[in-house]
Design goal:
CATH architecture of chain B: 3-Layer(aba) Sandwich
CATH topology of chain B: Rossmann fold
Largest sheet of chain A: 2 strands, antiparallel
Helix content of chain A: over 70%
Strand content of chain A: under 5%
CATH superfamily of chain B: P-loop containing nucleotide triphosphate hydrolases
CATH class of chain B: Alpha Beta
Number of strands of chain A: 2
CATH architecture of chain A: Orthogonal Bundle
Distance between the termini of chain A: 43 Å
Bound molecules: adenosine-5'-triphosphate, magnesium ion
Largest sheet of chain B: 6 strands, mixed
Oligomer: heterodimer
Number of domains of chain A: 1
Number of helices of chain A: 13
Radius of gyration of chain A: 20 Å
CATH class of chain A: Mainly Alpha
Structural class of chain B: alpha/beta
Largest interface: A-B, 18 and 24 residues
Shape of chain A: globular
Amino acid sequence: MDILVSSVVAGVLIGMVLALVALGLTIIFGVMDIVNFAHGEFLMLGMYTGLLTADATGMDPLLGIPVAAVVGYLLGIACYWGFIRFLLRGPMVAQLLGTFGLMLLLRNLALLLFGSEDRGVNAGLLVGKSVAFGMGVIVPATKLAAAALSLVSFAAVWLLMNRTRVGKALTATALNAQAARYMGIPTERMNALAWGIGGATVTVAGALIVNFWSVNPYVGLLFTMIAFTIVALGGFGSVPGALAAGIVVGLLMEIPGIWDFVAYATEWDWMMDVPVTSFKYTFVYLAYFVIMVVRPRGLFGWKH
Amino acid sequence: MTAPLLTVRGLVVRYGKLTVLHGIDLEVFPGETVCVVGANGAGKSTLLKAIMGAAPVSGGEIRFDGKPVAGLATEEVVSRGLVYVPEGRMLFGPLSVEENLRLGAYVVRDEQRVQENLERVYALFPRLEERRHQAAATLSGGEQQMVAIGRGLMSGPKVLMLDEPSLGLAPKLVDEVLETVDTLKAQGMTILLVEQTVREALEIADRGYALQSGRIVVSGPGRDLLEDDRLRSAYLGL
Ligand SMILES: Nc1ncnc2c1ncn2[C@@H]1O[C@H](COP(=O)(O)OP(=O)(O)OP(=O)(O)O)[C@@H](O)[C@H]1O
Ligand SMILES: [Mg+2]
């Protein structure tokens, strides 16, 4: 029983963080119908930002979060004005190859700057501590904080999108950019803002994740794939959908734990013999594949 | 005589090799209602879009309120007080009536003024107030057109350009829409109207222009246009 509850709790917590990872991807897609293959690379840079801020200042890695938000926001805006803006005028294939190129550029830049070895946070306020919830559920403090701060970030973005003038303008741009221009909304600036928010949220997610996950320049791809799955599941462009889908994907990643629980409970030897832990991400990719085949518009609907 | 609020001189619009407007001259004076009529594909929407900076201007000039506006971004034109209610309405479907209206006031920063304009629109279209929380996409065609016009009024424009507001509506609703235009005219609004319901539109208008294959073929007071043989044969089938 302990394993089951632990797995579910762990899945929900990591799911909240993964939802934040995907949030920017879904916002950017929602506003300008462009798929950002470099999304995971933004996350990787967020991880390095958190790590290096802690290293450089000797402060807690959690303090790297606001720094990561600023870096991600500026990076997103710069990518839009310097690069993406031109891609939008081109054909679909140019957009795909363009953001793919951005991915390679950022990855190799990271290799050049930070080297290829794995690096992690090994000291900090929360590192190594854990919180016991009873029923045998013990959660590392870093993961608990990451989940909580992800929820806070999510709520902040939701409020920005739904309760502010600029957020409404962003929504209008997503729904119909030409109509938005007829309202006097500067849609180019809205696109840039979407990249800024997208960049900031995913780098914040990176700065949260680096507290319990080591970073190297190649770590982005895994998260890009996970984010794609979440966006497909939650509906392209849907903010609440991303949160729900993030939690679902978090639970999918905990299937090995649940598997172990079933194996022990039933004492089925064949289940214990399957090295299911090595297939942790297979379930995520499998889900992505199934969604794409069965319901390409996403399980929770579409932006329109 | 007062200066025109909107002046178009020798306007040329090309899409690639296709020339859609071959040098249009048009003026709208303050308080006037001007109607542009013409067959499908004549270039009426293109004319309005070019004025809004939403179609490529390859020649001529456009002046609004004494200043050139050709080459400006659409949002800049809007903030100067020139508003376009597009053909086909282009509402933000999933958003509520009130959210749509408020987006029409995006360029107005003063919340007090937004509130006043909202009340004016609700006074003009009481139906919209009843349905303020309903998603725009779920309204009837006539109600959607009210939202489109109301949204255009929300920024308190100096000139309102309406592109076929009666498009796709039942005859009774067509009359209602044109009555609304008449009401706005009576309130002193300056209007540039594009219509296919030629007879009714020209009766409301102070002046009219007939557009054929990208050229103005007739212009003059609305009632004179209705009498014009060229127009009668070409568009009214009389
Ligand atoms: N974006 C575009 N690219 C190429 N050609 C265009 C474009 N927009 C309009 N045209 C062409 O310009 C011509 C005029 O179009 P426009 O929409 O201005 O006509 P209209 O008078 O408004 O017609 P309708 O009454 O059907 O709305 C048409 O032949 C159309 O095919
Ligand atoms: Mg038209």
